[in-house]
Design brief:
Layout lengths: L8 E2 L15 H28 L4 H16 L5 H7 L6 H39 L2 H7 L4 H12 L7 H19 L1 E2 L7 E3 L1 E4 L16 E4 L2 E4 L2 E2 L6 H10 L1 H6 L2 E3 L18
Antiparallel strand pairs: 1-2, 3-7, 3-8, 4-6, 5-6
Helix pairs in contact: 1-2, 1-4, 4-6, 6-7
Length: 275
């Protein structure tokens, strides 16, 4: 029971309130789209039933032309068409289906308008989140490219967003969601990490390190040494402030959060079995 609470430690540690303003109305729109398609099928059947029941007449020709426009182009009949069939008892079902289809179209359009408004509001919320110091501190150890793109993203009007801006918004949303909800099974390893590489043949990188025996992991032809640093939490604000002061600071430091667990040293050989 003393180990279980460790499984609930969140990796990113960003507050849930940062994600709360984001909303989406897509499920409502999908339901309305299905309702519109169903009402369209019923209206088409009502047209076909009306053509079967009506004798050759100008009214039947009008119904035929309305059915043709609806089938080929989903075109709404003119208001005069609805007026002309209101007095026909045989076309009550057709009139009802027309009114239902009109209603579902209006509800679907209203849902699309609400979704567009929510999407624009969400973009503005992400712009506000991108300027938050806590988010910028988290990105110091996650994505320098995304961090560098945030100032331009925050200043650009939402109505002028292009594909690049929408991609930046989606990347920010992905990281925000992961940082808010993702959990870590071992909180001890949710800390700061320094990573350096050295070639097996002895050719070192620009940041050579001494790799102690039993603390390295072979990946292809590289050795990956991952010493763990657990700084005093009182020092973290100062570290963030220094790194965020100039982009050159965090771009030149190989720091990241949430390191992988390093391999344990090999176990000593088992003692020989007694004779």
């Amino acid at each position: 029971m003393t180990i279980f609470p460790m499984t609930l430690i969140r990796n990113g540690g960003l507050p849930l309130g940062m994600w709360a303003p984001l909303t989406c109305g897509m499920p409502d729109w999908v339901a309305l789209q299905n309702a519109e398609q169903d009402s369209a099928r019923q209206l088409l059947k009502a047209f076909e039933d009306a053509l079967v029941s009506l004798p050759d007449s100008p009214l039947r020709t009008s119904v035929y032309n309305a059915r043709k426009d609806f089938y080929q182009r989903r075109k709404l009949p003119s208001p005069n068409f609805e007026v002309s069939i209101q007095a026909e008892k045989d076309l009550v079902k057709l009139l009802d289906c027309l009114q239902i289809w009109h209603k579902t179209l209006q509800e679907k359009q209203a849902a699309e308008d609400r979704f567009a408004q929510n999407l624009e509001a969400n973009y503005r919320s992400l712009q506000a989140i991108s300027s938050d110091a806590m988010m910028q501190r988290a990105l110091l150890f996650a994505s320098h490219d995304l961090l560098n793109s945030l100032p331009a993203f925050a200043e650009k009007p939402v109505v002028q967003f292009d594909k690049k801006d929408r991609r930046a918004a989606f990347s920010l949303l992905q990281y925000l969601t992961r940082s808010v909800f993702k959990t870590s099974p071992l909180g001890r390893f949710t800390t700061v990490q320094i990573r350096s590489f050295r070639n097996i043949d002895g050719v070192t990188s620009s940041h050579p390190v001494n790799i102690p025996e039993g603390s390295s992991e072979q990946i292809g032809e590289w050795l990956d040494y991952k010493p763990l640093i657990t700084p005093n939490v009182a020092l973290l604000p100062a570290i963030y402030e220094v790194l965020l002061r100039e982009p050159a600071f965090f771009q030149s430091l190989s720091l990241s959060l949430n390191p992988c667990i390093v391999p344990a040293p090999p176990l000593p050989p088992a003692p020989p079995a007694p004779p």
